[in-house]
Write a structure and sequence with these properties.
Membrane topology: Multi-pass membrane protein
Keywords: Membrane, Transmembrane, Transmembrane helix
GO molecular function: transmembrane transporter activity
CATH superfamily of the largest domain: MFS general substrate transporter like domains
Helix content: 55-70%
Number of helices: 19
Protein name: MFS general substrate transporter
Shape: globular
Oligomer: single chain
Pfam families: MFS_1 (PF07690)
CATH topology of the largest domain: Growth Hormone, Chain: A
Distance between the termini: 12 Å
């Protein structure tokens, strides 16, 4: 969700080669440059350099933030807009409703696989190109889903639409980090996360009215495709590149072209990128963190449960309000408004805690204070099970007015927002040097929970009843409730024992595995003066600007 790969400051690793370099017929290497390498580097010219998105005017930031926010809304909208089409699709293609639900779950499975590609792409090519390309391909798959002639085509199109819809969820957080500093980033990320959760609750309402009208279920996909096309157009014409490394690399290319001095470059152009590096950095490290770090494992399981409940409600609410209370299916989606208002309340609570966090951050000399992120999460951990029990024991009793279970969404939605957002912020602050990998592990696992929970929701609520099915979820929420309190008390001690999250940020370095260390040792050749001189030139001033967190 957040593209925050930290401090890529390790020296560029180059493979030792004993072969002579030939530039052309009979031409070897030219003489070494007389000037020091840093004299040819393109860097920021000052704090107000427009290459630094943090220096942009507020209006410029807000325009880009609005475009990115719409991208996020479209992506999350597309995940649940299909919920109203489950029954019509099952009838049209002659499959069971559980099988038809795959259109929802496969889209969410795409959320798990897409970031593995889009996160590294955003670091190689910046934010705009991946987001714009993904919006275009997403639009194509949504229109293909709308015109699908058979069930398998529809399912494949929904899955690949989910893969490309995951791009904003993986990249937009990083773009916000590019534009907003510590003081305002919390508010920006809270607004972004609000859109992530509001989308899945708004689209079922709209989709129900579309499906119930003469338009039919295909128009749920058509309208989502139209929204994707609009997002693509906005990305093309209004979205600006925010990634500092990409902007400076383009500047270096322009200066090279104008001056014909081909030694001028940005330090990122010296990066040696290969498949092994991408595999280790974006797949193996997240898995290591997930299973070796107790903080990441427990937080990920908790947020995965929350994410699963989010999509389970897409099946539970129609059962309660349409089946048990006999409300017309289109009107039975309106109680989602309670959840939407709850999410907005959660956003408000997070924003209300921001001044306190900024004060603690300032007192700590700008060094993150991870445990301070847990205070709003504690509030959410208490509100969430209360909302679940409230919904469970008021939902299927017709003598209780429908507004009562609807109001439970205020607590449930606020709990979802507070737990989910602050858990991610806690991981970012606690694992600053490997934050992107920690978030990647969280995204990977929670997406499968979100995909799996709707598949058993109907059977669980039918067999256990709304009261005990909801209570089962409430008891699980109570079991998770102590997590933020325990980490608030013992989190710093656990981080001191971790090699990935040391509390001494002044000396913090990204963990280096043995293979990388061996490669670095191989790259530093022995006593030949010419080789040593080249090694010093290559290794000196190699630091890249750390991505903001």
């Amino acid at each position: 969700m957040f593209d925050l790969y930290p401090h890529p400051s390790r020296p560029v690793t180059r493979t030792k080669s004993n072969q002579p370099f030939l530039l052309g017929k009979g031409r070897g290497l030219p003489p070494a440059l007389a000037a020091r390498k840093e004299e040819y580097l393109v860097e920021l010219t000052g704090d107000e350099d427009p290459a630094n998105a943090k220096s942009w005017a507020l209006r410029r930031k807000l325009i880009n933030a609005a475009v990115l926010g719409f991208d996020t809304l479209v992506a999350s909208w597309g995940s649940s807009v299909y919920s109203a089409a489950v029954q019509p699709v099952a009838m049209e293609f002659g499959v069971g409703e559980v099988v038809s639900l795959l259109g929802l779950t496969l889209y969410i499975c795409g959320f798990a696989t897409g970031p593995l590609a889009f996160a590294p792409l955003s670091e190689l090519y910046g934010r705009k190109i991946p987001i714009t390309f993904a919006a275009f391909v997403f639009t194509c798959f949504m229109f293909a889903a709308a015109t699908a002639k058979d069930f398998q085509t529809l399912m494949l199109c929904r899955f690949f639409a989910g893969v490309f819809a995951s791009c904003p969820l993986a990249v937009v957080g990083g773009a916000f980090a590019d534009m907003f500093g510590n003081e305002t980033r919390g508010i920006a990320i809270a607004a972004f996360s609000g859109l992530v959760f509001i989308g899945p609750f708004i689209s079922p309402i709209v989709a129900a009215f579309i499906t119930d009208s003469y338009l039919g279920w295909r128009w749920t996909e058509y309208i989502t495709g139209i929204m994707g096309a609009l997002a693509c157009i906005l990305d093309l014409f209004f979205l600006e590149e925010t990634y500092l490394k990409t902007i400076l690399r383009k500047r270096a290319g322009h200066i090279r072209t104008e001056t014909q001095n081909f030694a001028i470059h940005h330090v990122s152009e010296e990066e040696a990128i290969d498949f092994k590096d991408l595999l280790h950095r974006h797949l193996l490290v997240p898995l290591k963190l997930l299973f070796r770090e107790p903080i990441i494992f427990l937080i990920t399981i908790y947020t995965a449960f929350i994410y699963g409940i989010l999509y389970l409600f897409l099946e539970a609410y129609p059962i309660v309000f349409a089946e048990y209370r006999g409300i017309k299916p289109t009107l039975a989606t309106l109680p989602y408004i309670g959840l939407i208002l709850g999410v907005l309340i959660g956003v408000g609570i997070v924003i209300a805690f921001e001044p306190r966090y900024n004060r603690k951050l300032k007192e700590n000399h700008g060094i993150p204070v991870p445990e301070q992120r847990l205070l709003p999460m504690m509030v959410g951990a208490v509100l969430f099970p209360i909302g679940l029990f409230w919904f469970a024991w008021t939902g299927n009793y017709p003598e209780i007015h429908w507004i009562v279970p609807t109001l439970s969404g205020l607590l449930t939605g606020a709990g979802i927002m507070l737990i989910f957002l602050q858990a991610l912020n806690y991981l970012i602050d606690a694992y600053l040097m490997v934050a992107a990998s920690a978030i990647a592990a969280n995204t990977f696992l929670r997406s499968f929970f979100g995909a799996g929970f709707p598949l058993f929701a109907t059977q669980m609520f039918h067999r256990l009843g709304v009261d005990w099915a909801g209570s089962l979820l409430g008891f699980l929420a109570v079991a998770f409730l102590p997590i933020p309190f325990l980490f608030y008390k013992y989190g710093e001690k656990l981080r001191k024992k971790s090699s990935y999250a040391p509390t001494d940020f002044g000396k913090q370095q990204a963990p280096v595995d043995e293979e990388s260390t061996d490669a670095n040792n191989d790259a530093e050749f022995d006593d030949d003066d010419h080789t040593r001189r080249n090694t010093e030139v290559e290794g000196e001033h190699e630091k890249i600007e750390p991505a903001s967190t």
